[in-house]
Structure formats: structure tokens, C-alpha cells
Amino acid sequence: MSMKYIRDYYGVPAKRGTQVTITTPKMGDIQGTIVASRGAYIRVRPDLSGGRILTYHPTDNIRYKSKESS
Asked: How far apart are the C-alpha atoms of 70 and 60, rounded to whole Å?
């Protein structure tokens, strides 16, 4: 599956390089950048230095930042 599939199927603006905020119960808000997809999931590198790449469902508590709000 590809980013295009994720965008079309889930109706989200997921693209490599897109900034996202992921809200988690234990760690609060995590800022990061989409770096890849894995199946129907997106891979996000947290902005914190040394953060390992994490895998998330594209609609699971994720806010996508638009280019206009940058």
C-alpha cells in the first residue's frame, strides 16, 4: 500500500514530510514528521533528537498540519 492509498481510503492528507501531532495517553502530544508508510499505517519520526520511527494508524489521534498553518 502507498501514501496515495492512505490519502484516498482514509481521507487524510498523509504525505512524506508532513508535520503531525499525535496525542497519546501516556506521553501526551508527540510532534513529528511522516517519513514512510507500512501497509495501511504511517511511519512518523518524532522531532525529539534520537527519536525512533513509530508506526500509527492514519486516523488514530493524529492532527495533520497544513502548509497554510506553517
From this structure: 22
